[in-house]
Amino acid sequence: MLLPSSTLYTTSDFDLEKGGRFAALDISYETYGTLDADGGNAILLGHGYTSNPRAGGPGGWWEELIGPGRAIDTDRFCVIASNMIGSSYGSTGPSHADPDTGKPYGLGFPDITTGDMVEAQCRLLDHLGVGQLAAVVGFSYGGYLTFEWGTRHPERMRALAPVATGITGRGDPASVTALIDRFAACPGWNDGDYYADKKGSGVYDVLVDMRVETLTNYGIAKQLEDTVADPAERDRQMRGMATGWAEEFDANSLIALRKAAILYDAKPRAAEIKAPLLYVLSRTDTLFPPSLGPETVDHLAGIGVSAEYHALDSEYGHRGPSVDWAKWGPALKTFLEQHG
Q1: Exactly one of 318, 322, 324, 339 is catalytic; which is it?
Q2: pTM of the complete model beyond 0.70
Q3: By CB atoms within 10 Å of each CB, which of 51, 135, 308, 318 scores lowest?
């Protein structure tokens, strides 16, 4: 679904790294701030695995970090947040119609890579008239793309800031199989073609349960414990977040993005990075633990990359950079002012 706040750009003849081509490829995006005449003040911002391009403004996932005078200062920078291809918020993904059949791709969606996602963003930036990027910044899965940008287009940005992420991916083919199997147990899964009756198929209920699990792992449960006294109200709010997301997200997008994530590995090409890099991890993040910080920065320094690590002291796990934005926002602001 295309968010009301998003804009859609369509490009053509898009070749995929693993074979295949999209005759037409949609990319949805949002912008905050104004692009300079020379196109040199843009920051490309990447979102997480299950998230969307609504990063700034009321309700945005980094609302407190993006805006006039904030860490990502829209008085100075133009922020471009694009929905990665394969996702569920407007960009071409499994719920889009396969031109050969007229039906949603579903499980037949072509295999995509994080490299394909970067090249789609590259097309978008060219369309918008962006020159050299001030920075590429990415949270979680978007951090994968941040590292990819640094290795694939090293001259196109002046700074890189991967946040709550890794230089290599998580999971293996078994994690993809387990994800498919979980949906396949739904009576109306129909080999991924469940779109005619999402709620009746059972897929919606699985998505809700998965979202509660994900939000709990991300630190939302801890945040609610600290801010909402009534356990019943905490459960109600958690369930509300989960059902709202399940209404919007496509189960096949989870599968397509997971397949791309297990192939992702920017480490072998890391010596190509030219821009200075700020790497941020949360102390309590179990998805991308803080132990990754020093070892990644030491590796980068050893191959000639200017990299610094910011350890975020947060109790809110993977969600820490959003909840405890005030604890690391100044470091990001200073980094962007120096390099962007």
Answers
A1: 318
A2: yes
A3: 308
